[in-house]
Design goal:
The complex is a heterodimer of chains A (149) and B (77). Chain A is an all-alpha fold. Chain A has 8 helices and 1 strand, in the order H-H-H-H-E-H-H-H-H. In chain A, helix 1 crosses helix 2. The mean pLDDT of chain A is 90. Chain B has one domain. Chain B has 3 helices and 1 strand. At the A-B interface, helix 1, helix 4 and strand 1 of A face strand 1 and helix 1 of B.
């Protein structure tokens, strides 16, 4: 039963992560898009752990990228990049998403009762000291270390 | 299409690699978006894949394989 639930959760996460990446103008999902997908699951564990919803995290991502562009003298007039489409066919993701997903599955197996949830994705992503997720959490004033204790 | 303004290009200090890497990621996203938008405009203006490839310093086949709109599926939310 738990295995079937995991398969449903995995399908939701991967599909939604790709959709979120495309909507933000990126062809393949990265770790931050998996976090967005976790925040959009029916299971509310990711929202409870972070204390925010997907819209808030998405706004933080946009802000992080805008500030990074400003640091090199490029001012984006309108936050998000235009939506794009991923290549059809085989599911492809960036290495950061693959690493977070694999780590989340390990964390889920260590939990009792076992079973993958949105919170496992958030914890796995928070373990990454550098990168867009770490910067977005910092932008939101969330100490990522408290998420992985 | 995102309107961007290039003010005075600066390079983040190497003493702050995290900020430099953040800029690299943001610039990469912007470059990808600009490339796709430019390809769409070029195709609408009748450019061939050979011309697009030449403009991007790649072969027509490589440009088509990576950037053809037919290889992208519609995005949704």
């Amino acid at each position: 039963m738990a295995a079937i639930r995991d398969i449903r959760t995995i399908n939701s996460l991967l599909t939604e992560a790709e959709r979120q990446a495309n909507a933000l103008g990126e062809p393949r999902p990265s770790a931050e898009h998996l976090v967005l997908a976790a925040l959009l699951l029916e299971d509310d564990s990711a929202r409870a752990l972070l204390g925010i919803d997907a819209d808030r995290f998405r706004a933080a991502l946009t802000q992080v990228h805008a500030e990074a562009l400003e640091s090199v003298g490029v001012a984006a007039e309108h936050g998000d990049l235009p939506a794009t489409g991923a290549g059809s066919g085989i599911y492809r993701s960036e290495p950061s998403a693959q690493e977070v997903f694999q780590r989340a599955r390990v964390l889920a197996k260590l939990d009792h009762p076992a079973g993958l949830s949105g919170a496992h994705i958030v914890r796995a992503a928070a373990e990454r000291e550098h990168g867009t997720v770490a910067r977005a959490l910092g932008q939101l004033g969330i100490d990522r270390r408290t998420l992985i204790q | 299409m995102v309107d961007v303004m290039f003010e005075h290009a600066t390079i983040p200090s190497p003493d702050d690699p995290d900020a430099a890497f953040a800029a690299v990621i943001a610039l990469r996203r912007l470059a990808t978006s600009l490339e796709r938008s430019a390809v769409d405009s070029a195709l609408a203006q009748g450019w061939t894949w050979a011309s697009i490839g030449a403009a991007l310093d790649m072969t027509a086949q490589a440009a088509h394989k990576r950037l053809a709109p037919s290889k992208r599926k519609p995005a949704g939310r």
